[in-house]
TrEMBL record:
Catalytic reaction(s) noted: 2-deoxy-D-ribose 5-phosphate = D-glyceraldehyde 3-phosphate + acetaldehyde
GO (cellular component) term, any one: cytoplasm
Protein name (database record): Deoxyribose-phosphate aldolase
Location (main, coarse): cytoplasm
Active site: D89, K153, K182
Molecular-function GO terms, alphabetical: deoxyribose-phosphate aldolase activity
Keyword vocabulary terms for this entry: Cytoplasm, Lyase, Schiff base
SMART domains reported for this sequence: DeoC (SM01133)
Protein's GO biological process: 2-deoxyribose 1-phosphate catabolic process; carbohydrate catabolic process; deoxyribonucleotide catabolic process
Annotated organism of origin: Ilyomonas limi
UniProt KW Transcription regulation keyword: no
Amino acid sequence: MQLNQYIDHTILKPTTTSADIEKLCSEAIQYSFAAVCVPPPFIKKAKELTAGTLVRVATVIGFPFGYSAVEAKLAEILLAIVDGADELDVVINLIALKNNDWEYLANEINHIMPIAKQQDKVVKIIIESGVLTTEEIAKCCELYDAAGIDYLKTSTGYAETGATLAAVQQMRANLPPEVQIKASGGIRTYEFAKQLIEAGATRLGCSASVAIVKGAPAENEGY
């Protein structure tokens, strides 16, 4: 299996440097990864470094906890679009979810989607599956499918539990084929990456991408 085409080569550490982004983009071009996923301040640099290639530039919104106000997320999205991001990985408001405020979540996504889609941006919604019940995951599938998102994404990589086969399988069973799945968080081996794809994921968020595609053991590096 050619895993490179599924991978969003990722660095989202709060201590990320310009040198880190240069290395990330160079590797993404070398291994033909689908995208790089970078902190918002590095969107412009990543766009410059990947110009003329097929590597897309993704960034995160409301990351990593998701409890920013809707207005703050919209501001982040607008800035990311201006800077040239192709894809937006948006963390939902987990406080609203855990307080059973699905109306808030519907309002949030219904404000986000028109802005993103007007600019033809890919929207990936991060639900942090590792802290959700199966019932909550199922409700997320229903809500975000109705909103017209492109991908439902498992995790930020900052929760105790990242991507799991069970979460991907449940998401795939509860979503129509046109809504894709991105698995992320704790993916460090070729075998696990392959299993996630077989379970239904079509994108993988990885920081250990090079080691994964080489089938080599990865260093214990953060997401």
